Amino acid sequence: xxxxxxxxxxxxxxxxxxxxxxxxxxxxxxxxxxxxxxxxxxxxxxxxxxxxxxxxxxxxxxxxxxxxxxxxxxxxxxxxxxxxxxxxxxxxxxxxxxxxxxxxxxxxxxxxxxxxxxxxxxxxxxxxxxxxxxxxxxxxxxxxxxxxxxxxxxxxxxxxxxxxxxxxxxxxxxxxxxxxxxxxxxxxxxxxxxxxxxxxxxxxxxxxxxxxxxxxxxxxxxxxxxxxxxxxxxxxxxxxxxxxxxxxxxxxxxxxxxxxxxxxxxxxxxxxxxxxxxxxxxxxxxxxxxxxxxxxxxxxx
Length: 301
What we know:
The protein is an alpha+beta fold. The protein is built from eleven helices and 15 strands. It has a five-stranded antiparallel beta sheet, with helices on one face. A five-stranded antiparallel beta sheet has the order 6-7-8-9-10.
């Protein structure tokens, strides 16, 4: 293995300029005061910029959630990934932007780092099918909602499982990569019902379909956030339903959103106790789902 194929270490990853990195994934500062760069938070919806990067220290802090840290801390929250997954994405040259030496090189690198969708087709790649099986998602389920995507990034071709959102972008996943093409947004499946199930990511939605194979798809409406940052913006849409069933992650951010929703009325139901002790519904399915025969969702017919 040559040096270009090796993992970046945590120390090396932390040297990436966070301002340049955010620019590479589509976020520009709302205002700049000295070394402080202020953004509308990439981690949630807001109207007043309260996400700050101290460029001298290369550290960030989100005043709205009271969290901060280095680029690795940001990536774990933003991409909902592990440290090793983030470092692997950098090793695989999926890093979005390295610190630029000049404005000219910054613009050039940013242009190259954009994801370009080259082809969309039915799932057939055996590597991707094996990846889906590792997440306990059979092809018969995934093929109903996902596509196989060929895309280009940093001038190189890649392929992944793709999940379409309502504004034309794709969530992109394979065993080594987690990102999305522009524009990013939520995915809704509307069947004209009075109840809706809300998921943070599309693997949790697919897990729900696996867990309830005899549940009629048309008996629910579905909302897949694709990023927890869209939760606040989605609340007015959810208010139209008689019952809203939340299958959000059992981390601090997910549980905070669930508590926020429960305060809006008793038509919100937190279903995350189903996978207590696990990060999310898919992790529960992978680890415990086949062992538990007594699965029940509140309000299930």
